[in-house]
Amino acid sequence: MENYQPLFGVSLEDIQKIIASALSTGGDYADVFFEYSTSDELTLRDGEVNSVESSADYGAGVRVVRNGRTGYAFSETTGMPELLRAARTAAGIASDPGAAVRQVQVHPVAFENRYRIVRGWDEYPLTARREFLQGLDGRFRAEIPCISKVICNLAIDDSRIMFLNSEGDYFCDRRPCTTLSVVCILEKEGKSDNISTSRSFRMGSEMLGHGLADELIREVKEKSQYIFDARQPKGGDMPVVMGSGSSGILLHEAIGHAFEADFNRKGISVFSDRMGKKICSSKINVVDDATIPSNRGSLNVDDEGVAGQKTYMVTRGVLTSYLHDRISAAYYGVAPTGNGRRESFRFNPIPRMRATYMEDGEGTQEEIIRSVKKGIFVDNFTNGQVEIGAGDFTFYVKSGFLIEEGRLTAPIKDVNIIGNGPEALADIVEVAADSLVDDGAWTCGKDQYCAVSCGMPSVLVKSLTVGGSL
Amino acid sequence: MAVDIALKQGADSAKAIIEQSLSNSVTVLGSETDRIMSSSSRILFLDIYIDGRYGSFSTNMLREEELRKFIASAVEATRLIARDECRGLPDAELYYRGDAPDLGQYDSRFETLTTEERIGFAKSVADEVWGKEKRLLSIEAEWGDEVEHSTYADSAGFSGETLQSSFYASANCSIRGRGQEKPESWWYEGSMFLDSLNLKGCGATALSRGLESVNTKRLKTGRYNAVIENTVSSKMVSPILKALMGGSLQQGNSFLRESLGKKIFGDNLTLVDRPHTYGLPGSRYFDDEGVATRERDIIREGSVCNYFISPYYSRKMGIPATISGPSVLRFEGPSVIQKNELSLPTLMQKAGRGILITDFNGGNYNNATGDFSYGVRGFLFEDGHKVHAIREMNVTGNIITLWNNLIAVGSDGRVSSKWMIPSLAFEGLDFSGI
Predict the structure, then answer these.
(1) B166, B193, B211 — which closes off a domain?
(2) Is B294 in the same domain as B281?
(3) Minimal-distance CA residue of chain A relative to B86
(4) Looking at the partner chain, which of B361, B367, B396 has a beta carbon nearest the beta carbon of A194?
(5) Nearest residue on chain B to A55, judged by CA atoms?
(6) Which residue range forms the structural domain that includes residue B105?
(7) Which residues of chain B have a CB within 8 Å of the CB of A151?
(8) Considering B176, B211, B246, which residue would you say is the last residue of a domain?
């Protein structure tokens, strides 16, 4: 484990003093989260890398918890006077000035490094990154005839985290995350449309190898062949076959958020009182996982000192676990599941998903499509949303196909799909053995932005409401 | 100082903005204070231009030694990218110069608010309903206040300052619904001035909106008239604004490309920008580049009057610069011009039978084609009255077609919103349900 005490200019003894101050009014728990994050971006437009962006964000947040309630403050400098002031502000959530002083016995959190960097970005300088993007632009233009514009963005994020809490859990962790995004504008016979794609990993510059460019070009090329023929379909209730990979957005929206235990602690989730009950087919196992090497949603340690782990939310159709931070875990009397996450030191942690996916079932995607007389097949999405209490979720389909008599026929695009979480989960009647975690740049926006990922085998949902024309 | 350092280190020109913010929030869950947050933040944004090359940088590490190192690295990075002759500071004639009157954006009451007062405000919102309605499962009431102070300077001599305060209260209710469902409802009140904030009724409004939404039904797929409530009507305006942005137009990723001066929408669509309106959020004399704002028609009686063109896109596209984006957007319909009262029930009456949209649930649109598809919540209405709540429905169409089907414009734009878009009535939208 690296030592970031010199980076933040504080010693462990200093941080213990901050914790002591934070607990001075009778808090049950306190933690201090230090962060130094940098982001370096290059953007290619009009055939040239003509924009560079960099940012640095530095500071520390102090949290105090008293009976499940939170006091939080942060400072953008890490001198002791500022940190102690933040601790006193956060301590305002409790009101027992005579609370006994507690000594923190420090012990490092044991964790496995899931984002080892093979080749750092310092070995792949800006000029090489620029050449990569220009090469990518050239290949897109050469291989996809109707492209009129290409916008490529390479974003290299790097966070150094140091943490100590009143339980004595201490860690330093370095979290890389690199994202390559491409937007292609296509024109044909006076019509214009766009195709976007992205890949994001907790990796170093080795990410740009491994056939990444080939993969992105293949994906856009395939979609470009039918985008101008695609239409919004006739709307209404119908069977929906969701292809493997990014269809995991269904899990994220339909059930993932409803399993985040802050919603359950507040009694507002549609799944609040379903623990231990059968909620879907026995073919279904749903996992939220921080342990996939280099995955965008993976974490060595969460933002409140709990080691990254794999959590089964649904096991053989039965609801087996919510996703907990320390507050909700204490409320339910269970161990935290490592889902306490925050956007940055400016925010208190809350339960958040990591990589959420469904495990393999049986059969193939082709068999599932063949079983549908009339419906749609979807495998490309942009965004989703859920109403936690009502359970109604939506996701936006960027492209897919009609299914007619068991065959993919006309291409479709730009439709919203809406369903009810518990009903949709129960309506998953077929699960293929082709589970895939999607490596796109998924970002969840529940109050704070967090990098996540999602995955799915191909499934058949008996009925969802598909937006469309009459 | 940051601009000087950048110039000394080799930049041809530079622009800096320091944004300082102070914010506080208190959340009450039921009758208990659940979360208290306090923050103070200061960030430097720096744009650097070197020989036609451009870089954009930000940092909150502002000690001089750290800053010099950061800027040195920024200058070095900027040197390594491709030239783009269109990059640069605005032309001199575009800058705001002058000492115009105060736009009424700041309430000094922010400085004297105490944590106890904030807790009291949040509790007053929750207390309106908590323990008074059996079907209410939880209420989360939040109070927040914030002040933002921005200082602008560039190497061409432009300097400016803005100071804005904001106060808000919100309530989010969870209600016992059908079966396992616990539908949520919300209400929000915001103002730049503490005394103008209408705190009373915030919790009660959230609850009543939730209670009337409990017994939801799904409707048959079909074509319905629609009224979109003033709380969410801006959702249908934002695609137009994005399509009129220089970036979208220059990249060909806009359903309004080559629309300037053309009649695209119906006579009853008039959108204007009124950036110098005293006491309203969004008012400003200049944008982030120092370009002077002025009153502009964006769309007048269906014709596109102005794109949003920054100096960069002006050079890139060879057309005059306007402004980088709207400030205080206003909708001028016949009812607004004639000062007729056109309330939500009146709009529903005008629309006859249809769907009142009170919230959107996800969805998106295609900026290149204008095609959209959104999930909706709301009510079936007839003759100005709500019949029952609806659920699990999508509305799908095209933005240009939608606005050509505008029937009537309300006179109920919310002053707490930067875009004061009123409730809107449309004819014949495609809804999908059962």
Answers:
(1) B211
(2) yes
(3) A50
(4) B367
(5) B58
(6) 2-211
(7) 251
(8) B211
